[in-house]
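Exam revision sheet. Question 4 asks you to relate a sequence to its structure. Input first:
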Amino acid sequence: MPAKRRKTAAAKKPRALVLGGGITGLAMAIRLADRGFRVRVIERDRRPPVASPEEAFRTWPRAGVPQFRHSHTFLARLTAILREHFPEVLTVLRAAGTVELPLTVGTPPSLDLGPREKGDGELVLLGARRAAFEWALLEVARRKPHLEVLEGVFCEELVHTPGSRGRPPAVTGARIRKLPDTDDDARARGAIPWKAPGTPRPQGRARTLEADLVIDATGRRSPADRWIAACGAEPPKEERIPTGIYYFTRFYRLTGARPPGSSTGLVAGDVGWLKLATFPGDDDTFSLTVGVDIEDRPFRALSDPDVFETLVCAFPQIAAWRAPGVSKPLDGPRTPVLVMGGLENLRRRFVDDGAPLVRGFVAIGDALYHSNPIYGRGVTSGLLSVTLLDQTLASHGSDVDAAIAEYYDRARNEIEPFWRHAAGGDRMAQSARERRAAEATDDDLLSFVWSWISDPRGRGYELAGRAARTFLEQGFGPAVREDGQVYRAAMRVVNMLDEPQEGLLSPTVLARTLPYLIRSLVWPNGERPFPGPNRREALALIERVQSRRDRKRSSRGGTKAGQPASAARLRPDSRVAGHA
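Answer key, structure tokens:
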């Protein structure tokens, strides 16, 4: 085709502007380009071309993505999405050393799955660092014709035309501004930027980019409320429920034989006062993450690598992965423990009575739903939103607004149940924390009765939480470890293949769980599923490490004896990061 005709054909393509070039934004851009759009991606951070995920992990600063160097889980639903909609990306990931984890990986030793069943082939997770996933998407995006990734720029505001005759304003583009170049010399020398630099202030004149469709992929910190209000429309309604958890993560590389009886390293445990897990990654890497109650202040000392190592290695199933000759911290002894907190389950409503607040603008990924990263659903939910929008755009042709309305409706049906599951669990946990804090003053019958009258909803959440906890810990948990059908049902929910209510509360699962619940209630002193120290013993370990360090520093004339060596004075609203 002559150059002039190619240029004319390209000019007739609909234009799309994707705000945010992370995983969700890049995936959306790829699908739009394949759909026939001319696409521009707007990204604040600069990611120089690199040859491997390892280089991306070591050199990309990613100030705009605090979770970039935290643990990530890529669920089986995501694997299915990649197979169907992003085969090029999956090919790149496999070539880069991404591990595929089938159903049989990480099953409890006491569990016999029996013969292979229909649906088992869907249960394949991916083991990779987030850097590998983003790198693979960027590699594919940069090869696409009519797809341009603009880095070092950010969206200042939306461009719009006013609403009229009862119709909302129409977004017609965005005004962007360039960010100044930064000094990347240290990163070029291979130093891991564990602490990402702050985003510099914008400079230069604003530039307007026009588009037929503007997509918000800027994540949980999206300024969409401000953007939409500036268009003269009502901002999206928000619901925020704190997760109540701090996360501590450290990365490692395997250096020798894997522990006996293990395969790829997929271990998880919840002992009530602490949650911990291993996350297999690409290129023989893995990470360890610990989650603790945000109010449990002594465990903030886990930001100290010595404390972190001592505590995680007190759990035998984790210690096997840190045994001599098995692994070492990714960057040697200076590898930090990354901290993340202050997270919320966030839901935004961009529709009113089924109609979008503004035309030509749509939110995807964490800008629409963000849930507790402990469930590992962030990336999977993001790409699920991408495929839902891609499908509605295909079914509505040039009627973008009808496609957006149907997309929000489908997202509410297919993504929101998982958000409600996470938010409900955190709401119950919060009610339990508040009740425990108030118990000190509930020293008579009158106080007890008044607590029901003054806060019946909170008491209801507390009772529901206790009932759910009893069912999960004493019934469902043992059944998962011993009953292949219950295990399959749990894995399908965990991997977002089945909705929580349908998968966990089905008559079959309840019937198979009931005998285990009765057994646990009648004979409560069974074997602990995740052996390790109790909370009191863990606190003693932390104190021992800190005291030993204090004595050493005192003998060298440094820290005074008795002064805490750990600097883990983290605020409950801390967003320190180096994660879902």
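Marking note for examiners. The chain has three domains: 12-241+343-418, 245-340, 455-522.
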